[in-house]
């Protein structure tokens, strides 16, 4: 028998602080469905819990903030796109920025979701912590673009992988936050050319 708010009387079971895989996936599926159908305006922990037939305390136990849950859903979208590995550093840089700007963030609600998380992180310490943890992991993967180029002997072996990715991310985030994702091809080429020039391998090295 359903309750008046539409929530089934029998909720999905919780096993305490340890995540129940079935409940976790149900919550993530519910969150993704709400975002796809209603956008951010219809997204809330209450709405997700109701749709997933889970208790709000369960959702908050596993995701301490709305931003943390949004990031998990966003990560699911993101995992479908691997970092480029073309065998050429210049093409990898171009592919990385093109996938982010013209591709991933411009499609559907992904850019809007990530922009919302960044905005929440400015005033919510939990959101800021979740965003920092996410970025730390993503950047470690992104740094592999630079490390592979070093291993192939394409760029200066002393090039700072973390700084290069920071520059790429800064450009990408700035475009996202200022709503300038479209028509970025020429700008991407300038960024790629600048990084290629800065990391050029010195003769004889």
From TrEMBL:
Note the InterPro entries from the entry.
Answer: Homeodomain-like_sf, HTH-type_TetR-like_transc_reg, HTH_TetR, Tet_transcr_reg_TetR-rel_C_sf, TetR_C
Task: Locate the DNA-binding region by residue range.
Answer: 44-63
GO MF: DNA-binding transcription factor activity; transcription cis-regulatory region binding
Supply the alphabetized keyword list: DNA-binding, Transcription, Transcription regulation
Asked if Transcription is a keyword of the record, the answer is: yes
Q: Where is the HTH tetR-type domain?
A: 21-81
Know the name of this protein? Transcriptional regulator, TetR family
């Amino acid at each position: 028998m359903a309750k008046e708010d539409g929530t089934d009387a029998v909720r999905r079971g919780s096993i305490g602080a340890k995540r129940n895989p079935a409940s976790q996936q149900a919550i993530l599926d519910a969150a993704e469905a709400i975002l796809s159908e209603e956008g951010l305006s219809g997204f809330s922990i209450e709405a997700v819990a109701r749709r997933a037939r889970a208790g709000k305390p369960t959702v908050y136990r596993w995701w301490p903030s709305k931003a943390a849950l949004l990031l998990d859903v966003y990560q699911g979208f993101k995992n479908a796109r691997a970092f480029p590995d073309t065998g050429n550093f210049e093409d990898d840089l171009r592919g990385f920025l093109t996938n982010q700007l013209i591709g991933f963030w411009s499609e559907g609600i992904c850019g809007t979701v990530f922009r919302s998380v960044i905005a929440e992180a400015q005033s919510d310490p939990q959101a800021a912590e979740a965003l920092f943890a996410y970025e730390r992991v993503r950047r470690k993967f992104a740094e592999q673009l630079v490390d592979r180029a070093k291993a192939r002997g394409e760029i200066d072996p002393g090039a700072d992988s973390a700084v290069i990715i920071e520059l790429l991310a800064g450009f990408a985030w700035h475009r996202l936050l200022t709503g300038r994702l479209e028509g970025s091809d020429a700008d991407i080429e300038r960024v790629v050319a600048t990084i290629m020039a800065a990391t050029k391998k010195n003769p004889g090295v």
